[in-house]
Amino acid sequence: MQLLKNKVMQEGIVLSDNVLKVDSFLNHQMDPVLMKEVGREFSRRFSHEPITKILTIESSGIAPAIMTALELEVPMIFARKHKSLTLRDHILVEKVYSFTKQETNEITVSKKFLSSDDHVLIIDDFLANGEAAFGLARIVEQIGAKVAGIGIVIEKSFQPGGRLLQEAGYQVESLVRIAALDNGCVTFAEEVIS
Ligand code: 5GP
């Protein structure tokens, strides 16, 4: 997605060989016009799927997820990272190792908002090792619902998440793929037009 590539080139800050900071449009300040386009693009790429819900993880997944949900006119749910006081009988829980915080969090979703009939599109801001996306997929599968696909705003394709998710049988659509972050520079991977 060219618009997103331009934004990454203009505003992305390479923090290390494996971390990109995009806090001016996605991770802190958010660009609603860009997010609207992101939502349109995900809805186009998954238009063949009978999606009934969007699932993401707080907090940076929420903007692209809500814009996709708006396009598809379905509800959006975000998994919470912090322990809920709700009775555990009423929640779906999975452990997820956080790439940025380097700690394991329990992510939770209320059973009220997912059912076995759902076709769930998972959306997240970044894909690195795939921990967050796999955790969200396990939440969906725990309740007996179907993962319709996984939409990622920025995939770092030099890390294994994308390959592992595809090997597990999920359709992964990444709007921008980064091949390397060496020497403070962003190198994009070849774009596959779908
Ligand atoms: P994974 O679970 O695939 O290993 O990592 C994805 C999660 O870690 C995303 O939810 C995202 O919040 C965070 N993340 C991974 N890599 C980066 C990065 O380079 N920059 C930022 N800002 N977040 C990242």
Automatic annotation (TrEMBL):
It catalyses: XMP + diphosphate = xanthine + 5-phospho-alpha-D-ribose 1-diphosphate. Gene3D superfamilies: 3.40.50.2020. Its EC number is 2.4.2.22. Keywords: Cytoplasm, Glycosyltransferase, Purine salvage, Transferase. Xanthine binds at residues 20, 27, 156. It is found in: Cytoplasm. Pathway: Purine metabolism; XMP biosynthesis via salvage pathway; XMP from xanthine: step 1/1. Pfam families: Pribosyltran. 5-phospho-alpha-D-ribose 1-diphosphate binds at residues 128-132. Homodimer. Belongs to the purine/pyrimidine phosphoribosyltransferase family. Xpt subfamily. HAMAP family: XPRTase. This is Xanthine phosphoribosyltransferase. The lineage of its organism: Bacteria, Bacillati, Bacillota, Bacilli, Bacillales.
